[in-house]
Amino acid sequence: MEGKGDSVSSFTSAVSLDQLGVSFIPQRYVLPPSQRPCPQDVPISTTLPIIDMSNLGNQSLMSTTIDQIRIACKEIGCFQVIKHGIDISVMDEALEVAAEFFNLSNEEKMRLFSEDVHKPVRYGTSLNQARDEVYCWRDFIKHYSHPISDWIRMWPSNPSTYREKMGKYVKAVQVLQNQLLETIFKSLVLNPDYLHEEINGGSQTLAVNCYPACPQPALTLGIHPHSDYGSITLLLQTRSGLEIKDKNNNWVPVPYVEGALVVQLGDQMEVMSNGQHKSVIHRATVKGAEKRFSIVSLHSFAMDRKMGPALELVDEQNPKSYREFCFREFLDFISTNDITKGRFLDTLKMKKP
Asked: What residue ranges carry the coiled-coil annotation (predicted)?
């Protein structure tokens, strides 16, 4: 697959390259020097908050917790949550069956391969191998997940427990997403039921990722810098590797916290908040000898539901800063653009009068 036009039969994934025991990465994975990960030259002062979600049930701690979330959303666009109500066994089983999927034969996984970003279920590598000039060192299986009854029959049937175990996680994380959005809306002084019907009727896409061990981790990335399109993203990871860009343009490693989930704000939340909350730019690094798995639950409004800044957050002092957009527009953008060369969010920003 040296060229974008190569046939599916010659497709070689990052996992396959790792299994072959390559001692160097193919040129298609090598980033230009300016885009490569490197040790930080300056001390990192940004601390990623860890929010105890159980405090939201305590009347004396609720307002403090909402304020912590408001500051995290405004300053960073990212935080971690603990005591979030998802049983550790549900998370562990989802990660275990994810590892089983990537251990399947290449022939089995390739039955789900597609370069069409609109496909409801697809296996692939990189971000968009049809467009990426430099590939990402990762394999993924992505599938639509809400409402689960509409999509689960399309998910992988192998491993045999994939639908059962991943389904339990999908349902649990959907409940948590609702709680988090209510809390974030409160932090914006919006009604906690704001867009309630749109959220319940929205989409959930699960991206299950495998970042294989990499013989030259300093030359490549697991995922290139980008922001997510949706309202919020919840990430479960087996080890550290995720990095976020802070307001000083420093790359900040997100530490692995056992039992925690990482919450990242997406473009829809920045637009909806009229810029009060920030969509976080993030990337994934890879390791020389360690494989990493992550399960990313991306939540957004329905495919064609247009959304823009909340009217309650627009006034003379804070004019409307973004145009409306929908999920389908984002998919059209990534199907025709290399996201390393420009953010979708930038196409939504309105010029100041």
From this structure: none
Q: How many percent of the chain have pLDDT more than 90? A: 68
Provide the CATH number for the domain around residue 178: 2.60.120.330
Q: What's the pLDDT tens digit per position in 229-241?
A: 889 999 999 999 9
Question: How far is CA 215 from its chain centroid?
Answer: 25
Average pLDDT score over residue span 42-48: 65
Domain count, the chain: 1
- Residue 48, domain member (yes or no): no
**Dihedral angle over CA of 244, 320, 330, 2, nearest 10:** -50
Distances (CA, A) of 119 to 95, 123, 148, 245, 268: 23, 10, 16, 30, 21
**Does residue 134 belong to any structural domain of this protein?**
yes
Using the predicted structure, report yes or no on whether residue 227 has a pLDDT greater than 60. Answer: yes
Nearest 10 degrees: Cα torsion 210, 216, 221, 222: 0
Measured CA to CA, the distance from residue 194 to residue 172 in angstroms comes to 21
- Residue-range definition of the domain harbouring residue 311: 67-347
93-109 confidence digits (pLDDT tens): 999 999 999 999 999 99
Question: 262: closest CA among 39, 51, 32?
Answer: 51
